[in-house]
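stage 2 :: seqdesign
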């Protein structure tokens, strides 16, 4: 695809990058004692137009941050030659909606994008026939799961986590940009490792993931080896490349912090790689870099605000911040 077709969207991004929050702002927010003080400090940022009037509860903040992120992504989506590139960043919200539909839990907290409200209502009613081909048999099979609500939710999580990662890889193939693919390779393998790691920590038999979570394309061999190795401490030789390096570094943390540290280090690796897209005047790499930066910004805001609401030490919050794009 000709890079000139990306020109208009990348022109917008040149302006929008100037609104991204710098790392020193997050460090300045971390010591603030009251949520109201954070609220006042953020009045000078893009969030002022999204802030709730009056109440500044944690639920207000999560909704505010998510709404801003989704609005920005949808606004750019309409200008992209390949709209699926924006869908990459909307998929987590779509799959949370889909999970609620599969479990028939009623309201969907996020606006519908990949899965329309009508499709979600159909799924909640037991009809998966109009879902995309790759999802239809999976979602139909979830409707037949027995064993109680807890078991149903667990297996639905496994299955939809796998479906989400396969969806990400499908979009990577559609975008067909080496830098974007490299970032998403890290993301997919890293998140697959986290899914299995959390399962092992919670005492789940990893063999269940072989049936409900896999396949994950080219990573099947790696993931099958991890599933067969119940001792997560022996995983390092099995995890290839940069993801293995990140896993090894995360092992230096206290056991209860290892997964969080792994996710932080992985996100930082992806950010460092995505920054290379800033060298592109126009192209999918520039779009991916900005949207990734926006997602990291949302994570950091939630981390700081949630941490202060719950009295977490400011220095600990600073250490857990993910590297900013700017």
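stage 2 :: out
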């Amino acid at each position: 695809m000709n890079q000139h077709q990306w020109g208009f969207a990348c022109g917008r991004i040149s302006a929008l990058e100037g609104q991204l929050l710098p790392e020193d702002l997050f460090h300045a927010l971390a010591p603030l004692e009251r949520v109201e003080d954070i609220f006042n400090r953020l009045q000078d940022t893009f969030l002022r137009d999204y802030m709730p009037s009056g109440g500044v509860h944690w639920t207000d903040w999560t909704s505010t941050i998510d709404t801003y992120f989704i609005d920005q992504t949808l606004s750019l989506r309409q200008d992209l030659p390949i709209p699926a590139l924006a869908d990459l960043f909307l998929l987590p919200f779509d799959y949370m909606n889909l999970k609620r539909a599969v479990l028939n839990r009623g309201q969907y907290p996020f606006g519908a994008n990949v899965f329309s409200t009508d499709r979600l209502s159909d799924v909640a009613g037991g009809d998966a026939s109009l879902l995309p081909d790759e999802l239809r048999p999976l979602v139909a099979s979830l409707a037949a799961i027995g064993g109680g609500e807890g078991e149903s939710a667990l297996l639905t999580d496994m299955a939809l986590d796998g479906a989400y990662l396969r969806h990400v890889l499908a979009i990577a193939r559609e975008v067909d940009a080496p830098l974007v693919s490299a970032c998403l390779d890290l993301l997919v393998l890293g998140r697959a490792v986290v899914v299995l790691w959390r399962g092992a920590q919670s005492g789940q038999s990893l063999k269940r993931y072989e049936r409900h979570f896999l396949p994950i394309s080219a990573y099947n061999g790696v993931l099958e080896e991890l599933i067969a190795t119940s001792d997560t401490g022996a995983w390092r030789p099995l995890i290839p490349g940069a993801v293995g390096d990140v896993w090894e570094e995360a092992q230096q943390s206290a056991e209860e912090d290892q997964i969080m540290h792994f996710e932080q280090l992985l996100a930082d690796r992806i950010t460092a790689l995505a920054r290379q897209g800033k060298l592109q005047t126009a192209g999918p790499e520039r779009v991916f870099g900005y949207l990734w930066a926006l997602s990291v910004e949302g994570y950091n805001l939630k981390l700081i605000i949630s941490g202060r609401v719950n009295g977490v030490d400011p220095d600990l919050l600073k250490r857990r911040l993910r590297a900013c794009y700017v």
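stage 3 :: structure notes
- The CA atoms of residues 39 and 56 lie 7 Å apart.
- The chain has one domain: 3-320.
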